[in-house]
């Protein structure tokens, strides 16, 4: 391989097996990840409902995804599924763990926050709680 401006210590970003460059999700690109373990979800935090000055709109929730700092990185997560996992007091079918599923619909602002709609509205106790942003369905 010839020397290019992008080459660092003899490695130019191309995989030895496939002729395409390696790409990871924007949230993972700044972190060093071993190829043995890749998670199927990213972590996010519920910021609250979409709202105006006086009106709250609980059918849409705002989520900040870890490692996403701008609108361009947030574009990768559009259409991805979101899961709010919580524990309830009463068991149903032998489990106290419940899940509310949702989907990321669009970016919110320019700082990497996204809007998401859940099947049932998130309760206020979910504000500040973590959610799982699944890396599927994939559009790459």
From TrEMBL:
GO molecular function: structural constituent of ribosome
Keyword Ribosomal protein found: yes
Chain segments annotated as transmembrane: none
GO biological-process terms attached to the record: translation
Assigned keywords, A-Z: Ribonucleoprotein, Ribosomal protein
InterPro entries given in the database record: Ribosomal_eL33, Ribosomal_eL33_sf, Transl_B-barrel_sf
SUPFAM superfamilies, per database record: Translation proteins
One GO cellular component term: ribosome
Family statement: Belongs to the eukaryotic ribosomal protein eL33 family.
Name this protein carries in UniProt: Uncharacterized protein
Organism expressing this protein natively: Leucocoprinus leucothites
